[in-house]
Input
Amino acid sequence: MAKDDLLTQATGEGDAARAIFERFTRRLIGLARSQLDVRFRHKIELEDVVQSVYKSFLIRYGDGMLATEGEGGLWGLLTCITVRKCADRVRYHRAECRDLAREESAPAGSDYVEPWRAVPGREPTPDEAAVLAETVDHLLRGLDGDERSVVELSLQGYTAQEISATLGRAERSVRRLRERVRKRLEELRAQGT
Output
């Protein structure tokens, strides 16, 4: 069956692309697997390579840039594109900044802890929570009910516009109060309180 027959046997372009996809995908994945060293297989998804091959083929075929004779010619073209895509991906992962040879594994049996496991959680420690509560309490002292509400809503992540709408206060007064509280917080930090 000629390539053009394969592409025109279906009624539309989507059907033609699907026919090519169904006919060659497994073989192209196998070819890509044979082209990639085992070290690269955890970095390069075989299906992504094949999808890129199809994309390149269909774009160039649609633009009339490709001409092959028969199914063998189509397979040869897809094979050539696949081999080149694999080589490009390997070259990308061998670049000095990403070179697999530079990656190191933790020594077997060592007490090495991955850095991401040593990162503290987002929750504050009890001491940090106590300092935060004390600081917020200190900030809220001396504020009347509406001002206190503005600060509490600000701490909950509301914007000045949302606070203004919620409390029925002018947005400008909300912004000024927030700025005053921010300056007070900086003073407290400078004092070491």
Observations:
- The chain has a mean pLDDT of 78.
